[in-house]
Structures are given as C-alpha cells and as structure tokens.
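Q: Given only this backbone (115 positions), what sequence would you predict?
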C-alpha cells in the first residue's frame, strides 16, 4: 500500500484548501478510504470516510458542512475539499485505507490555519 498526500499549506481563517491523495499498490476502487488528522499533542481524529463507489460518506461533526470527501477511482485519487477553515483545523492530514481512522496511511500533509 502506498499513499501520498499533497495540497497542504498555510491559510487564514475562512480560507480553503483541497487535499489530494495518490494511491497505489492495492485495489483502490474496492476499498473504503478516509482522511485522518492529528493536531500537535492530540490523538488521531477520523475526519471523513467514503465508500468504495463514493455513494456514501461519513464526516466528523467538527467539520461537517465545511469539508467534502470525494474520489476518482479511474485515477486512484482521494480528495478532501476544506472550506471555511478554522484555526482549530490546523493539523497533519493523512490519507488512510479503510473506514474511520483507517489502516495504512501516507506520510501526511500539513495544514496550518493562522491569523
């Protein structure tokens, strides 16, 4: 399993970022996929998960209405569109195989929301 995240960066509150994850080494289109984040000094938090066909997702209450998970099975890519970002969204974001906090993860991409 290989997962590589990209798209992180630094924005001001209210800004938007789109994360991307390139997957390889497993049958991507047959697996649920998730985004997981971890802020400094805190445990991992499951942000959002998506079924293999992209028809059903579950999103954490902390980001509901602001973050949208999606996937492109033809390109083996997972996405996370993050809008109306808040300072408390600052964390390392990981793409993960599976549901919830998932299994295998990539190295992560840092998202920083600061004034």
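A: Predicted residues:
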């Amino acid at each position: 399993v290989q997962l590589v995240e990209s798209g992180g960066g630094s924005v001001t509150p209210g800004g938007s970022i789109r994360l991307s994850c390139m997957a390889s080494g497993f049958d991507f289109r047959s697996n649920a996929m998730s985004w997981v984040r971890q802020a400094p000094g805190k445990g991992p938090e499951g942000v959002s998960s998506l079924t293999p066909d992209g028809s059903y997702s579950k999103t954490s209450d902390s980001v509901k209405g602001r973050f949208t998970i999606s996937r492109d099975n033809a390109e083996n890519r997972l996405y996370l569109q993050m809008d109306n970002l808040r300072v408390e969204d600052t964390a390392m974001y990981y793409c993960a195989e599976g549901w919830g906090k998932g299994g295998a993860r990539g190295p992560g991409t840092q998202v920083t929301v600061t004034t």
